[in-house]
Amino acid sequence: MRIAITGSTGLIGSALVRSLRADGHDVVRLVRRPPSAPDEVRWDPRSQEVDTAGLAGCTAVVHLAGAGVGDHRWTASYKREIRDSRVLGTRAVATALAAMDTPPRVFVCGSAIGYYGDTGDRRTDETASAGTGFLPDVCVDWEAAARPAQDAGIRTVFARTGLVVARSGGAWGRLFPVFRLGLGGRLGDGSQYWSFISLHDHIAALRHLIDTDDLTGPVNLTAPEPVTNREATAVMGKYLGRPTLFTVPAPVLRIALGEFADDVLSSQRIIPQRLLDSGFTFAHPRIMDAVRAA
């Protein structure tokens, strides 16, 4: 297959490119700068421009681009960047695909379990409605921006991603160095649920979404058994052989992270029901499996 990917240099995108190419697929990478390699195609989400000629023959497009939620303190300007990078980018790609004479068969659009907001200890699947707050609002607008592709009859799937457990990159990649130094510990009281997924399973799930013709709409990309922050902390300490005595109190997190701290402390017990129902098998269903693999 010929598959186009945005966000191909990020943690998930680069791993997906490697996985697809290892199996002989032709991968096209959408880049914001002038293309410098045969596999690159120009796009500009700000100006809503996509070089669709370079997407000719693509069976699938996987859209993963977006500013990192935890990369900077949430100032008003960075919150606009978080939203615009997702909404404008998705709208640009969806509109371009819809206008193609022969559009791709499937559009896999990145999204996030932030859609659900704070779910407490309630097991939550794809049938739940959106939560309230900045991140749920962003996710709602993000997914709505894919409407042109849906209206054009392109099978559109929203990959609502959880916390990806990886050695480097993403939120978990920042935890490993801290725990290796013996400075890891609970965030707040540690009772909040973390819905995780190993990088290996995330890539396998994205490929499953591409290949499974009857999957459309939201699909949660999380492992089947979410754990509390306290449980995740204990597992990290065990596998890295380090103490986990430190605790970061909620007030300190709010000083350090500002508004983003409330999302770090929120609880999301998200279940990948549609993924399970479609026959997907997790290689790392438990937190200990995911941390060991990372």
From TrEMBL:
Residues 3-212 form the NAD-dependent epimerase/dehydratase domain. InterPro entries: DUF1731, Epimerase_deHydtase, NAD(P)-bd_dom_sf, SDR39U1. Residues 248-293 form the DUF1731 domain. Belongs to the NAD(P)-dependent epimerase/dehydratase family. SDR39U1 subfamily. PANTHER family: EPIMERASE FAMILY PROTEIN SDR39U1, SUGAR NUCLEOTIDE EPIMERASE RELATED. NCBIfam families: yfcH (TIGR01777). This is Epimerase. It comes from Streptomyces chattanoogensis.
